[in-house]
Amino acid sequence: MIIFEATNGSLIHRIDPRVRVAAACAFAAVVCLSHRLVALEIALAAALGLVVLGRLSIVSILGRIKALNLFILVIVLLLPLFIPGEPAIRISGLTWTREGLHRAGLIALRANIIMLAMICLLATMEPAHLGFALRKLGVPEKLTHVLLFMIRYVELFHQEYHRLRDALRLRAFRPACNRHTFRTFGYIVGLLLVRSMDRAQRVLDAMKCRGFHGRLYVLAPFRFTPADAAFALLAAGLVILLSWIQLR
Amino acid sequence: MNEPLIQLRGVQFSYSPEAPVLDGVDLSLRPWERIGLIGPIGCGKTTLLHLVVGLLAPTAGTVWAFGKTRTGESDFREVRLRAGLVFQYADDQLFCPTVIEDVAFGPLNLGKTADEARSIAHETLQLVGMGGFEERITYRLSGGQKRLVSLATVLAMHPDVLLLDEPTSALDAESKTRVGDILRRLNLAMIIVSHEHDFVRDLTTRIVNMNGGRLIEES
Lengths: 248, 219
Description:
The complex is a heterodimer. Chain A contains 9 helices and 2 strands, in the order ααααββααααα. By secondary structure, chain A is mostly helical. Chain B is an alpha/beta fold. Chain B has one domain (6-217): 3-Layer(aba) Sandwich (Rossmann fold), CATH 3.40.50.300. Chain B is built from 8 helices and 10 strands. Chain B has helices at residues 45-52, 73-82, 90-93, 99-109, 114-127, 143-155, 173-185, 197-203; strands at 6-16, 19-29, 34-38, 60-65, 68-70, 83-86, 161-165, 189-194, 206-211, 214-217. Chains A and B meet through helix 7 and helix 8 of A and helix 2, helix 3, helix 4 and helix 5 of B.
């Protein structure tokens, strides 16, 4: 399970993380509030532009977007049933309205645009840099620590869960819908929680032994370069353009 | 100039009143001394190390270290910088994405600049024979490599005393020899906790046996 792909040295990868985080947030906010198709088309073009600039692999992007779109599919199927308007499709008593389909389409488009931008701008930096950038932008220290440690340890718990599951399989456990299964899964979840607590305590102890006093430092300091300024200006321009189209 | 660096005086400790783990322990570590602490699993060896650096507090007795008696958290903060504890499981010790970040974590906490921390980390990795591993992903290293890196994370703080908790557990023979060679080259006072008699006997100046919550000097 790889969340972050930090190294390929493309233009996007070299932009200051602070600029990228701020740009991603502003872009996502304005796309969320856009209802006009023109604005969303421009935003989509911008997001695709980021994919090209970031030299990201199409296969991995499709993999990430697939999960989101399974969820979106449910909305697209259900929403048009409940929004009144001109009937568009009728199948055995169920009516999907034109207005509903339009609304669902907008949601699907917006979600994919934002997801693409996040993949290009945020998933392309070191987790530690993301944490550091968030802190520089005023996010509380504790929240960024939670984020960083989650990124570091989610993989470890994933492995732990697999070990427990293998141990069950080796003793011929087969999940079914019965009390034995529920109890067993209860034990597993409980054990994972207890083990995580213990490990968290040990990691904190080890960190204290190395002088940790509530602050994480980053080895590579950020430098704000002309390229960063240019990127920030472009992003700001795009956000203003999209807002203007919406408010016109 | 033969004042001990660390001294435990009548230290008692228990997780529950019925079962004391340490029952009046006295131990002195003098400069350049290397003590091997041997005993069966679960006899309180790790507990003793955690008491020395203040991760646990004794129920009775005192911990004296580097010139004064240590009681509160702020007291022990200084002890932890001068007495480096290497944990038994490297996975508990290493938490940064890359090796260099993990080794530089301690120096950064000590107030070094990023450049200083980086160069200290490079030197320390060279010292433990892990030069060239700087940018590797920590959790993808092998068990032996993780052990050497976790040793480096502690050495990078330039401690006066090294506390090692089972430095050879779950290592193959070759990695064991490597760890042993590195420890032998270091000019530091040490307490090595282990249940491997041969390894410890070979490295230390005296051996202390732990049993039933007490220490017995081996002649």
